[in-house]
Amino acid sequence: MENKYNHAAIEKKWQDVWETTKPDKVEVDHDKKKYYVLEMFPYPSGKLHMGHVRNYSIGDVVARFKRMQGYNVLHPMGFDSFGLPAENAAIQHNIPPAKWTWDNIHEMEVQLRQLGLSYDWDREVQTCDPSYYKWMQYIFIQFYKKGLAYKKETQVNWCPGCQTVLANEQVVDGKCERCKSLVGKKTLSQWCFKITDYADKLLEDLDNLPGWPEKVKIMQKNWIGKSTGAEVTFEIQGYDKGLTVFTTRPDTLFGTTFMVLAPEHPYIDDLIPEGSEYRAAVEKYIDDAQHMTEIERGAANKPKTGVFTGRYAVDPVNGAIVPIYIADYVMMGYGTGAIMQEQVEEAMKWLRENDEATIKFYKEQAFMVEAPNFVDLVVTETEPGVKGDTATNVTKTATVETGTDVQVPIFIEEGERIQIDTRTGEYLGRSK
Length: 432
Ligand SMILES: [Zn+2]
Prior knowledge:
By secondary structure, the protein is α+β, with helices and mostly antiparallel strands. Helix content is 31%, strand content 23%. The protein folds into 4 domains: 7-139, Rossmann fold, CATH 3.40.50.620; 147-193, no CATH class; 230-341, Isoleucyl-tRNA Synthetase, domain 2 (Alpha-Beta Complex), CATH 3.90.740.10; 361-430, CATH 2.40.50.140. The strands form 6 sheets. It has a 6-stranded mixed beta sheet, covered by helices on one side. Strands 18-17-16-19-20 form a 5-stranded antiparallel beta sheet, with helices on one face. The protein starts with 6 loop residues before the first helix and ends with a strand. Zinc ion (ZN) binds next to loops.
């Protein structure tokens, strides 16, 4: 017997055995309980890296454990091998995308086998293979027949360097992940799926997810983006076209304090013509917005920014004159690309049921509101005050009805109404 572990010889011996005996091949067996272990298919971008090894080892442990528990385990492997990276790599290396892709797949298959992962290799799929993608085509045709696939002009990330569309994930700090060119937006005809037809169903079924964190459910709700509302048209002063907005709260029309346009809104060029004193700032703002993805623009942790257009709209309900701004958190693909913003006070009332992040969002938005710039809130809790002390420079912490903590003068008591600056969140004074 050899004293040294000869991995090359021993592993080769067993890999050959597994190749012929197929210990992990799985067949339908109605007497056994089923268990499906599926890890994310690798993208055949080259060789495996340690991230793959970590990921697939974890899945393999689960598969083996479940087999030992007597389950009939389906544990397949495949390659997510269609897409832009293959085309781009092919351009870069000047080889056909098919050759590049299949070479990588074969390389990675060898490595996965060397790792001894317990896959049923007879069930391997490659999404770039016609035997696989004919099903995608079949499904697409069914969608198309049912009116669920349609063509629409939409904005995409466009790299002028690679002359190609980029996924949001390929845009890093506004630049192309690969060639570092500044990424712009381009309007292209795209195939879209009409997932909105299923919004009700998706939303309703979120209630069937017990144990899911409320935060995640809210994120899903926002992502599904189902909104029932009305389109309302505002007149724009000195402009012949009306500005149509989509609102989920037509009852808040009375409180509209400003309007916001998406940076891609088609009126912008007309509304802020060459020579307008607002033109330069607007151009710069739009240019910056174009170098961000929609995910970045809408991110909850991104400070809300905006730029004034110099234009005003007329509230159709009460004739109020409200300023029009452009802000990157408004997307052209949602509603009409224009929104109205109700009074901060109104918003705050509604927000009392919501979380602090949302309140922060509104506070940050309030930078654009001329008035009101404060909100009246009731103090619900405070540290004890000192009777008779009127010093305003001695402060203590109080909690207001929104759950936010504010530094207030020592004489403020529970149950009092105080004014809070919506821009800074600071105490302004007792409510009059
Ligand atoms: Zn590029």
